[in-house]
């Protein structure tokens, strides 16, 4: 038996679930997980079904499912069990990379990390200790177009399905965002837009915040405003100085990012307007 995942969204109407399940039964498939969401505000149905099948390929199933999809005006994706290939980008902070590497080696990340790219050399030992290629691509105001072209080449070279900005401290151009639309996940602290710029945790300490959080989202040309996949929030109090707030913030960033990456790799995240539907 081979494992597959089907995701779809379409205008709400009677018979959608029946059409999907009938198709799977007719093709000798066994449904192992099924989730759906009816968005009454937008009048759309979102569905994720994981199933196993003794025969057939993705291409065969897509070809045979197309008539069903056309009948219901479905936007859909169908995948086999091939693991998502992940290119991780970092700068100097290593907490998110370290967490991703641990989960990858433990088999709980949902995808396969294929390389680490950075605009600094600081995290080369961490990547190479995990047996990964580390590619240094300097990125500054003078060479940004060339750096982004090199990134696209690396995505192609490593056949990466997903790019993860694990505290990569460079803003991607609008052109690069468009070329990699839906394939780049970023993480940042959730104080934005309140505490911008350097030392956000020091600013938060000065304001006496009671919560520290992080947001994982898809990257779009709107800086830090792409569709949110996951957020993590941790409670703090007056005893947390800037150093302690920073440590808690790093934990929140690592947790939110790893969940977002895993859910994306397992095809659990679906765009919905400016947000997402996430089938956990």
From TrEMBL:
CDD domains found in the cross-reference section: ACT_F4HF-DF, FMT_core_Formyl-FH4-Hydrolase_C
Active site: 224
UniProt keyword annotation of Cell membrane present: no
Upper taxonomic lineage: Bacteria, Bacillati, Actinomycetota, Actinomycetes, Pseudonocardiales
Metabolic or biological pathway, per its Swiss-Prot or TrEMBL entry: Purine metabolism; IMP biosynthesis via de novo pathway; formate from 10-formyl-5,6,7,8-tetrahydrofolate: step 1/1
Pfam families according to UniProt: Formyl_trans_N
Record-level Gene Ontology MF annotations: formyltetrahydrofolate deformylase activity
Domain Formyl transferase N-terminal: 85-261
Keyword Transferase listed: no
UniProt-listed Enzyme Commission number(s): 3.5.1.10
Cleavable signal peptide: none
Keywords tagged on the record: Hydrolase, One-carbon metabolism, Purine biosynthesis
InterPro entries tied to this protein: ACT-like_dom_sf (IPR045865), Formyl-FH4-Hydrolase_C (IPR041729), Formyl_transf_N (IPR002376), Formyl_transf_N_sf (IPR036477), PurU (IPR004810), PurU_ACT (IPR044074)
Record family assignment: Belongs to the PurU family.
Primary role: Catalyzes the hydrolysis of 10-formyltetrahydrofolate (formyl-FH4) to formate and tetrahydrofolate (FH4).
Domain of life of the organism encoding this protein: Bacteria
Organism: Lentzea miocenica
Protein known as: Formyltetrahydrofolate deformylase
Enzyme superclass (EC): hydrolase
Catalytic activity: (6R)-10-formyltetrahydrofolate + H2O = (6S)-5,6,7,8-tetrahydrofolate + formate + H(+)
